[in-house]
Amino acid sequence: MGAPSVDDAAASRAVGGRRGALTRPAWARGPAWIFVAPALILGIGVFASIQVAHYLDRASVARDFDRFRAGAERSLDRMTDRIAIHEALLRGVAGLIRASGDVVIPPERFATYIGRLNLDTNYPGVQGIGYSMALRDDAMRAKALGTLTQQQAAPRLWPEHSDGERHAIVLLYPPDLRNQAALGYDMFVDPTRREALLRARDDARPALTAQVTLVQEVEPDRQPGFLMYVPVYFGVGVPDRLEVRRSRFIGVVYSPFRARDFLSAVFAGNDEAREFAIALHDGPAPDASNLLYRTDPESAFENVRFSAAFPLNIAGRRWTAVVAAREPFYRLSPLRLSQGALATGLIGSLALAALAFTQARAMDGAERARDALRSLNSTLKQRIAARTRELEIAREALIATNMDLEATVTRRNRQLRESTEEAQRFVYVASHDLRAPLVNIVGFTGELAQALERLEAYVGQRRAADPDSVPADIAKAIAEDIPEAVEFIRGSTARMDRLIKAILTLAREGRRALHPEVLQLDLIVDAVVAGVHTQVTAAKAEIVVEKPLPELVGDRLAVEQILANLVENAVKYLAPDRPGRIVVRGRTRGARVEIEVEDNGRGIDPRDHERIFELFRRAGPQDTEGEGLGLAHVRALARRMDGGITVSSQPGQGARFVVDLPRNLIVTERGA
Prior knowledge:
By secondary structure, this protein is α+β, with helices and mostly antiparallel strands. The chain is built from 16 helices and 16 strands. The strands form 4 sheets. Strands 2-1-5-4-3 form a 5-stranded antiparallel β-sheet, sandwiched between helices. Strands 11-13-14-16-15 form a 5-stranded mixed β-sheet, with helices on one face. It has a 4-stranded antiparallel β-sheet with strand order 7-6-9-8. Helix 13 crosses helix 15.
């Protein structure tokens, strides 16, 4: 075992000369040491118990808040569903007027139709259903007065004015006291009603007014109100163009709503709504001036544990719903487990501390016996220290290597980016420069064609004068071979010009800086569909857009080009043996947006799914125009916006392209 070291001898003298024994320090000897471990265990146990109780309390609050949001959204969905039902009801009445072939229908027919709907029973809260005519000339004014004469003893159009366009309520059912007071009213004189009327007319969609006081408010109990308009156009279908919609617009079918009557019918009797106090405001921010309806006094929304504001889009109008939890909501909260967890933790900690105290006493005796063995471990400790030092040196070397590797990767990324930019510049310059000799070829080909014409004339004259003066092979070359070669050169130069233009487009797109902005895909898709309307009509196909499409922040030009290429490809490759149908839809998946374009066209062989995204490559029969650049351009644009594109298809079963893009495009580099 060897002679004891100087440290061992000093330690031996400290305890009276016991050679070869290492001793514990003074603070680690004696009865007090036995209590250290139990006290530590007790302290850790108490701390852990408090933390667990705190975590359980927070988790319970989080579950309550999730339940609050879900319940509040379901309650609000009841209201939006009810308004959607009224929207469908008004569309049906608009269809009745349009199907009549006239600008207005007889009051008795209108009353019969509306009466069968049983508004009071099936649609509680609605004040009525009416029809307002656009009075553009004296004939329309006379027809409106004739319709009012059948319903009133003294018909009139009010208020009287001569400022531009007028709109008059000529039909309104049921014929109660409130609705009779509104007949003949010109809604165009009110700026609030006029704004919604014009929006419904131009967008060909239902439109909701801002908060108004209804003309039907003839009693002291006046309520806030609003109106929903559905446009009616003369003729079949809804015009595609704005100017046609304005010229064929004949009026609106509408419903006036007394806010408290309508919304109380929505929320009354709803078991789930009893858990929430709800206030609805007309506008993007809650305010006392725009309050439409409130289920509880204002105090119910103050100093509550759970409350939130929900934005709502109702027929083009922004509402804000403020929802607060009521007492019944808290009674359904799960039992709090924090106190039980705290008590259990404290009891367990005490038990463990007692067990640790018992074990510490036994270990104290064993520790004394182990003191003699610790001297044997000193050499081992020295070896461990040396090995530890070696490991530290190796770790430092590894850190240095990692730093060098990171620097190398950064340098290589920069070189790759510079190489890519240089390649893009080269492609751009090369494509641009290729056009110069191509222009020369086109020009000289034209001159060659003109010379050929003169040569043909000359040969013709020679052969007319002397048929044997021009050899047959020369005549054939001039009449057939050379013209065929000229046409071939022209076709090849035209195709080369298209290819160079396409390559220039790709090169410019790669160099163009992206500009993120908020994009409404509904409007972008409508513009794309309008652009291919002629081709779709010629192919006797239809394009269905499943709205609403999600919003995203991205580069407008890139997104428009992606959608235009996909929709145009779908139209181009429709199957000739069945009616074409193209569907555009979108959805949000977390932080990503997926845009899907699906058709029932020819389809694509799975072996060509990757090939179609390559430059100048196309799949299937080559019987349509194109150079095979569209899908390559789409994939390049999607990748520039940190996205991608996939395709799923089988021959004869159509194709489905899915573009995956971030909801929030973040440009990290110039041009990225």
